[in-house]
Amino acid sequence: MTVVPVIKRDYICNLAKQGKRVDGRKFEEYRKISIETKVVNKAEGSARVKIGNTQVLAGIKMDVGEPYPDTPESGVLTTAAELIPLASPDFESGPPQEDAIELARVVDRGVRESEVIELDKLCIEPNEKVWIIFLDIHILDYDGNLFDAASLASLAALSTATVPNKRFELGEDYPLPIREPPISCTSVKFDNFVVIDPSLDEDEIADARLTVATDNNGDIRAMQKGLNGSFTREEIQKVIKASLDNGKEIRRQLSEVTGK
Amino acid sequence: MKSDINLIDDNGKRLDGRGIDDLRNIKIEAGVLHRANGSCYLEWGGNKVLVAVYGPREAIPRHTQNSLRAIVNAKYNMAAFSVEDRKRPGPDRRSKEISKVISEALEKIILTEQFPRASIDVNIEVLDAEAGTRCAGLTAAGVALADAGIPMKDIPAACAAGKIAGKVVLDLGKEEDNYGDADLPVAISPRTDEILLLQMDGHLTLDEFNQAMDYAIKGCHIISEIQKKAILEKYQPKMEGQ
Amino acid sequence: MHDEKREIVFPSQILGDAKSNKAGKGTFIENGNIISERLGILNKNSNYLNVIPLKGRYEPVVGDFVIGIVEEALSAGWLVDINAPSPAFLHTEEVPWNVDFGATEKYLNSGDSLMAKVLKIDEQKKMQVTMKDRNLFKMNDGNIIEVEPSKVPRIIGKKGSMISLIKKYIRCRIFVGQNGRIWVDAKPENIERVKQIIDKIESEAITFGLTNRIEELLKKDVRNVQE
Hints:
By secondary structure, chain B is an alpha+beta fold. Chain B has helices spanning about 95-110, 135-145, 175-180, 205-240, and strands spanning about 25-30, 40-45, 45-60, 70-80, 120-130, 155-165, 165-170, 180-190, 195-200, 200. In chain B, strand 4 (about 70-80), helix 1 and strand 5 form a beta-alpha-beta unit. In chain C, the strands form four sheets. A five-stranded mixed β-barrel of chain C has the order 8-9-10-12-11. The termini of chain C are far apart.
């Protein structure tokens, strides 16, 4: 792992004391976000999201399979994330380490618990055949804040995915049925400063991380605290507010791109 | 099944309208990733490949270090969503074999003696697959290596030829790969025509093999021009102060 | 010799014949031709054909001044990351302090930044650095800016002209490491301004008239600050 120089951390904290961030953003400001959908032909759904220089590609593949025994008439979602060595000099090849696993599970929960996908509309034959949705997240360029980029790419891919009925000789293709998604916003804390959408430098010196997913009613749908630092109640309130504000804007941007 | 598909019609046109020695559309962009030392994004027909180069950097684990030169680690990987039936993430035997032959091709062309104990890591990700991914990967790797400033004797270019419906053709497309009679991926050093990678499966007479080699090498030369143009396009505008 | 035309060359490009020219840096000879081994700029210097790399990792040369980041304190010295293919070793004898064996952590620890000079490189490219040279010290303040090592000469300028230009308009201390790391110590706003200037030099390194444009930019900033 590359060692972060102590003076760099000091510099970032000194700037923060003056309310500034290294790239000139405000504490509650995101970098430029770009969303592109239908970028992989072979996939049933796909999207490439850039937040600053961070780039994530999410792909959806669908297959027919057996339902879970406790939900015999529901489709199945399975999420995997790969921190491929392409994306950073510090990512190693091999089976997913805990960072990749945490990332996949957090994105999965964000999608699953909020019932973004209408899984009950994905039953082909009760107890026998349902649609299995494979959501695969591929990190392409790591420059800070993988959680939000991965989450947004997943939502954009799902929002523009097609159920491949034709290929399985089950009729005509149709759009994957989805609902209004909650938007994930991640903040990190270093010293006593909390900033949203961490850049790579900020990610590297972060003591604690908090991801909050909010919906269009202003309600909270998912949360995850990471790393071994702590947050005060007050800090958590601030993070929720920043997540709500930015979440609204990001949802609007997503809607514009996907038409949903 | 084979007879249902007419791979070459009466006018000599293939399924996608190409002639027997036409390449699919190729688009190459150099320097597309922020973290990597060098990178390349390439589209070839329906293939979409992204390559990142890291290095020369310390070869880890230590026991893999070579005290005389750098080791070249090419890793070819297909994204789960890049193929018709979702592929389980992780290297399968096919990926490991392709990684090996690509590493060996690159070892010949990279001036590895300049970096003892180091490794040059070439990560090839296939994001969308449509026949000929190893040639697409190696071609993109050549550009990414140049973009990373790695010293090389040449920029390697790769292209496949094959046989369909009894005729030798250049650059097999998806159905041609599935229903054709032979597949011959080749990589060369365009300056000297040295063969760096060569694999073949199917059935070819000696004459057909020679014809296929000619086609593939010609294809490599055309691709070499596209690679060089992509590199110049990335760096030339900087000269004019844009 | 200042080259009028700056030509970009790539690996395998034939630069000239080996009879009337001599093979310089970044080239090799094959079949009587001098060929580029890198992506770079062609440079002709008294019959030598050189290729100045446009990109590439730092390749240490004995005598280079570098900025290192300590990776690990060992008993006889420290492993220092100098942005090269492997870390360099800094021996306890090569620092400005009297360090007892095993007491290395008292002086330098993981994450500390220091200025150093490349002392030795063996045939296996194992490197040693030293801090025993005037004006080399461990840095406690400021920030480190990372740039492409190949752009460092442009940032320094001919005989240090570019750096002097920056220091003329912005109050700061600057130490440029050949390994693509630049240390800047100044008021935070000034560190920001220096970073912006260096970023601009880096992205326009191979264009013409850069020095003038940079000077204009520096002058404009000063005027803005004074208004």
